[in-house]
Design goal:
- The protein is mainly β.
- It has one helix and eleven strands.
- The strands form two sheets. Strands 2, 4, 5, 6, 9, 10 and 11 form a seven-stranded mixed sheet that branches. A four-stranded antiparallel sheet has the order 1-3-8-7, with no helix packed on it.
- A hairpin with a 6-residue loop joins strand 4 and strand 5.
- The longest helix is centred in the C-terminal third of the chain and has 5 residues.
- The mean pLDDT is 95.
Length: 128
Amino acid sequence: QVQLVESGGGLVQAGGSLRLSCAASGRAFIRYVMGWFRQAPGQEPECVAAIRWGSGDTYYADSVKGRFTISRNNAKNTMYLQMNSLKPEDTAVYYCATDNSAFASLRIYSSTNEHDYWGQGTQVTVSS
């Protein structure tokens, strides 16, 4: 059974930084895509970044390009999201997600919220 556990959220002032972690267990992830989603109150989840575990290919939403960096550590089976220059509109619960199938396209992965495994989420709050 795949398990995903996020950590690293918190309260930060605008312009600050946070690094989120997603510890994954239950299988090898090398063939799969894993991503970070966020959900603000009253809004649908949106994919902010995704990574193909084996190749390291990445996808970023336009709203975070140049500010967020997704990465993974194969040895630790952990994915990260380095968030810099944070803005109040980045405030949300952040989740990591993955699937039983290997997505052919990162863009297709990012366009859907229908994923098989989700973490419990970590709150990120950016004050102005």
